[in-house]
């Protein structure tokens, strides 16, 4: 079949789950022989944290006002301008991975400048600001086709919003994420101040959705049993404002007698070099993924591929692809449950993940090439439907 010209749009240059999805999908689609361009908004001097093997176009951001709504509006405008400068109508497929790029495409579609677009919903947020809520809604309502990375969100889109979404799962790069120790791992640990034992890892920064406060409380219990334990909270580059929640975590840490900083009880890395991610997973004794809401939880597969056990929230989407042989479950609303699950893994007290058979079988079910092929099927179906409408 003919190669497709595909534009993948992502909201940020930072290592968030949706951006990682975009870059991995771009890489896999390129490997299949398609002509892929990744569009991302950026301020002067910014660049994607990892470059895919395809064309990348940055949409220059001009921000004149403070606040989340102004930031979103500036990025929508940047996308619109850049897409038109790069002949948006000439792409076979325009695929938005978020509400920001989805709104830019919705506006271009309303103006008759593009035929339509596809939108992947990783998860939806709650916004008190009516403009943010309206932008989020428009980005999926005006799409020709909505995709989700998990069945829970596909059902949510259908039952709550009346959107006929399709599930197209994520993948995992098992060549990049492996249990094999790298000589640079110890240097990375020293540089980040990760020198305790055992290590509890959380990826995604300090956010209410990530349930970081409950994890902190649980970790305090873990340290009473394992005084040398460290909690590493990695990443956290987000466009949304989580400062109030982060301040409450710092306050609670002080109340619990937990020190924060390199070589301390709690290490908060902030954004860091993407090349160090595999080593970070290998450095951990357990990944804690006790989120209250996720689209898929890509880091779970990355941790397991790195040989690191996982404690996961006993809720969808995790319950869709994990079981008792691939993770240890916790109730994310119960601090004692989180602490107990972490201790089971760290002490070998009853939660034994099957890294010999179950984990390899799980990882084999999720690959980026398979995800890319499923995306291409959706793309071609959409193009065929358009052709029928024209004729």
Automatic annotation (TrEMBL):
GO biological process, one term: lipopolysaccharide biosynthetic process
Residues spanning the membrane: none
Glycosyltransferase subfamily 4-like N-terminal domain sequence ranges: 16-176
Keywords: Transferase
GO molecular function, one term: glycosyltransferase activity
Annotated Gene3D superfamilies: Glycogen Phosphorylase B
Every Glycosyl transferase family domain range: 189-348
Top-level taxon of the source organism: Bacteria
PANTHER family assigned: GLYCOSYLTRANSFERASE WBBK-RELATED
Name of the protein described by the UniProt record: MSMEG_0565 family glycosyltransferase
Taxonomy of the source species: Bacteria, Pseudomonadati, Pseudomonadota, Betaproteobacteria, Burkholderiales
């Amino acid at each position: 079949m003919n190669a497709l010209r595909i534009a993948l749009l992502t909201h940020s240059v930072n290592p968030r789950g949706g951006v990682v999805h975009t870059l991995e999908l771009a890489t896999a689609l390129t490997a299949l022989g398609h002509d892929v361009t990744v569009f991302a908004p950026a301020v002067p001097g910014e660049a994607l944290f990892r470059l895919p093997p395809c064309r990348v176009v940055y949409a220059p951001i001009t921000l004149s006002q403070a606040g989340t709504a102004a930031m979103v509006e500036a990025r929508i405008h940047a996308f619109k301008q850049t897409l038109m400068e790069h002949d948006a109508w000439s792409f076979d497929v325009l695929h938005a991975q978020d509400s920001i790029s989805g709104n830019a495409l919705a506006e271009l579609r309303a103006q008759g400048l593009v035929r339509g677009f596809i939108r992947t919903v990783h998860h939806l947020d709650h916004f008190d600001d009516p403009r943010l809520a309206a932008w989020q809604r428009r980005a999926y309502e005006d799409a020709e086709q909505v995709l989700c990375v998990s069945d829970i969100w596909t059902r949510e889109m259908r039952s709550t919003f009346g959107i006929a979404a399709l599930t197209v799962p994520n993948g995992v790069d098992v060549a990049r994420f492996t249990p094999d120790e790298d000589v640079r791992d110890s240097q990375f640990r020293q540089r980040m101040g990760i020198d305790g034992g055992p290590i509890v890892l959380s990826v995604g920064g300090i956010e209410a959705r990530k349930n970081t406060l409950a994890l902190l409380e649980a970790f305090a219990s873990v340290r009473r049993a394992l005084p040398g334990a460290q909690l590493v909270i990695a990443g956290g580059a987000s466009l949304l404002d989580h400062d109030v929640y982060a301040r409450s975590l710092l306050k609670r840490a002080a109340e619990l007698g937990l020190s924060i900083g390199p070589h301390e009880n709690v290490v908060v890395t902030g954004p860091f070099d993407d090349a160090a991610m595999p080593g970070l997973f290998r450095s951990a004794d357990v990944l804690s993924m006790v989120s209250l809401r996720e689209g898929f939880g890509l880091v779970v597969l990355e941790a397991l591929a790195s040989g690191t056990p996982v404690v996961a929230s006993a809720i969808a989407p995790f319950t869709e692809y994990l079981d008792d042989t691939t993770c240890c479950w916790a109730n994310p609303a119960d601090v004692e449950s989180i602490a107990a699950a972490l201790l089971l893994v760290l002490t070998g007290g009853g939660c034994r993940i099957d890294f010999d058979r179950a984990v390899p079988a799980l990882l084999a079910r999720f690959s980026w090439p398979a995800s890319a092929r499923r995306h291409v099927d959706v793309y071609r179906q959409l193009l065929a439907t358009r052709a029928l409408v024209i004729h």
